[in-house]
Amino acid sequence: MRMLAEGAGPVITAKDSVQLHYLGVRWSDGQTFDGNFDSAPADFPLGNVIVGFRLGLVGQHVGSTLLVSIPAQFAYGESTESATNPLTGQDLLFLINVLGATQPTQ
Question: Could you give all domains of the chain from N- to C-terminal order, each with its CATH number?
Fold first, then answer.
């Protein structure tokens, strides 16, 4: 993980939902596979994302811009013959702009 700009907002926890813009590319060829910088921010619980994405965000501050490198084993797993996800076996790179974080309501 590389901090491109550190935010001054609250610290993100593993239980938070995050609001962010992101761009995901395959490390092997630089091809974009997902992103939302040209649309509304994504909003999802950190418990519902790949392990490497969550590890890259927990402990960071809202308002930060991050570059997160995620090896395949912390993304969609190592390559197997039965894998159906095209990102299985791929190392990934995410550019993330953290816009907000909210804790779940009880």
Answer: 2-99 (3.10.50.40)
